[in-house]
Amino acid sequence: xxxxxxFDWDGTLAHTLPIxxxxxxxxxxxxxxxxxxxxxxxQLFGHNDLVQKFIITPNQLRQAEDYADSKVDLSTxxxxxxxxxxxxxxxxxxxxxxxxxxxxxxxxxDLFIKPVLERQNLxxxxxxxxxxxxxxxxxPAPDIFLKALDILNVEPKNSxxxxxxxxxxxxxxxxxxxxxxxxxxxxxxxxxxxxxxTLSADRIITDLSELPVVIEKLFHA
Length: 221
Prior knowledge:
Layout: E1 4-7, H1 17-30, H2 37-43, H3 50-53, H4 58-71, H5 74-79, H6 87-96, E2 100-105, H7 109-119, E3 128-131, H8 143-152, E4 159-163, H9 166-175, E5 178-182, H10 193-199, E6 203-205, H11 211-219
Parallel strand pairs: 1-2, 1-4, 2-3, 4-5, 5-6
């Protein structure tokens, strides 16, 4: 029986939170949206419905994106992005233990993720790379996760999702997949402990090095 671990990328494996926060702050500034860091994370990160959500025109959306791009060069920033402490060691350990590994993300795989995996010598450790462009519905719909499991030929009951936000946990629960929420100290300024509790994740970790033990316990729960 093959088992799989599906990783979110931004904020989970990759230390991209400061990059996206800077970009979305510039985006919000252009549109005169007065949002807290928490509101930016919850209302903007990974959403494709911003025109409807903030009642703006497609042209305003493009102008806001162009303005944010002028302030934060995502290509340059992501080319230099680092992984969270313990990520590389944990990935290799889970791979060596026989798990199928996948990255399931809203970010562009080819543009932002493959270059980092190659630089970190981690490409061969992942059996599937799935982003929002490969499915009909982005998170919090479970499409990305189900697509990855289809590629891996693993059933939802034999998999675990590791993510850092509400959309990961909601999608996991919708798909009937066990889940682990990554909640390191730096995320406290974005998600309050009270908010995290409302997500009712199966497990919460603060360091990726905890994953192998937590995953083993979840599969035998």
